[in-house]
Amino acid sequence: MDSVIELNDVVAVLGQFPALAGANLQVSRGEIVLLQGPNGAGKTSILRVCAGLLPIERGSGRVLGIDLVAQRDEVRSRVGLLGHSNGLYLDLTVDQNVRFWASMVNATEEEIVRAMSLMRIDGRLSSVKTARLSAGQRRRCALASLIVRRAEIWLLDEPHAGLDAQGRDELDIVLRNAVFAGATIVLASHEMERASALATRVVTVDGGGVQ
Amino acid sequence: MSSVKSRRTIAVAVARKDLSIEWNSRILTNQVAPFAAIVMVMFAFALDNEGILQRVAPGLMWLATLFSMLIVVQRSFTVESADGALDALRVAGVDTGAIFVGKSLALMVQLFVLEILLLATAVVLYGVEMTAVGLLEAFVTMVVATAGLGCVGTLYGGLAAGAKGRETLLPLLLLPVVAPVLIGATRATEAAFGSGGTAVSEGWPWIGLLAVFAVIFAVAGTVAFGPLVDE
Q1: Distance from A196 to chain B by nearest Cα, in Å?
Q2: What tens digit of pLDDT does each residue of B143-169 get?
Q3: Contact B91/A101, CB-based, under 8 Å?
Q4: Among candidates B3, B20, B89 on the partner chain, residue whose Cβ is nearest the Cβ of A106
């Protein structure tokens, strides 16, 4: 299997603090890789480096063959990051949010409808302002927005957070379907039992490096 | 692979999104416009002389516009940072130049609505009278000044968005930069109003200055907005 993420001795800094201290990671196409580790270990920083959001100070990295140091901007259009925040506009309705993200790419009406139906945010919920939704409903809206973008690599930070049991089961099905359709997933989660069952490989992160 | 659309399509989508947010929240109509009108009324209370008010009406109108603009710009970037949407746009590889153009367009529309309200308030409250040519000149002044304010407001709004104490930092950064717009727009509007016996023809060179300002910040913003929000 070809490697879609390669981090070699990556050092990254957040403000004045080292976020990653020589992290190494290789992810092959079609994998679901779970990053596990304590708070502050560097899981989120790895995801942000892979998304081209956090610059590499030392070391090297490639995502989908694109150099993370020289071509950071090019990586961004090909990955999807769902972090602690959902990336939604709280004064827009659910439907307006998903359609806005769909308008950033050539998403079809069919894709929009399918994504909203899959995440159970169609029907009455679609016309509700995002600010009035529960945390779980917002998460589902954010995932629908990610689905319509058709990202090749999904970088997910605590994707199950805020979802009810049914929502979690449905998310797992969505993630497996995404991998079946050709995507690769790297997720950070504290919900070890559920995330381990989903993952094809578990990687331990601690002290800004991969163990 | 997601296919990123053209800059123009994205700019239109971003502008429509910002205007939809405003339409849904009604902050402009329910809070900013009343604030601008109250500022105009307070000026009238403070000066309390119709002759002076007619003379200084253009300056008061543009000062009220700048104060209101600070609120609209803050709001424009608060909605982006409230749930990490600007980060999400950057991760999505959306052209930051297109984001700048879209947000500037939405800001221009909102400012233009405010300026029409303020012009009407000046006519009613300060007893300003205008000829047809003066009205045309006032309209052109508003269009050109709004273009400059929209661009510079978006650029500095983006700059302050990620900074500590952004609420207080924005006025400190923005007001000195828009001083040329305040001067140019006030002189042009004085000519349009005929304040102090100024001829209408005297306003056009000032409109030229406003156009130069708008072009400079449109170009600078399109180039610099991406690196600024990345920082």
Answers
A1: 26
A2: 999 999 999 999 999 998 877 788 889
A3: no
A4: B3
Contact residues on chain A for B17, CB-CB shorter than 8 A: 89, 92, 96, 100
- The pLDDT-based confidence of B3 (bands split at 50, 70, 90) is very low
Nearest CA in chain B to A149: B2
Judge contact between A172 and A119, C-beta under 8 A.
no
Examine the pLDDT at B2 and tell me if it is beyond 50.
no
B87 and A91 within 8 Å at the Cβ level: the answer is: no
Q: What pLDDT digit, counting tens, does each position of A63-74 carry?
A: 999 999 888 878
Q: How far apart are CA A18 and CA A188, in angstroms?
A: 19
ipTM of the shown complex: 0.85
The single-letter code of the amino acid at B20 is S
Name residue, tokens 């992290």.
A23
Is A76 close to B92, i.e. CB distance below 8 A?
A: yes
Among left, alpha and beta (phi > 0; psi -120 to 50; other), residue A182 is: left
**The total number of structural domains that make up chain B:** 1
Range(s) of the domain holding residue B220: 4-229
pLDDT tops 90 at residue A160: no
Chain A CB contacts of B229 under 8 Å are none
For residue B9, list chain A residues with Cβ-Cβ distance below 8 A: 103
Handedness of CA B133, B134, B138, B144 (dihedral sign): positive
pLDDT at A191: 81
B148–chain A nearest CA distance, Å: 26
**And the tokens for A180?**
């079946």
B-chain CB neighbours of A115 within 8 Å are none
A26: pLDDT strictly greater than 90: yes
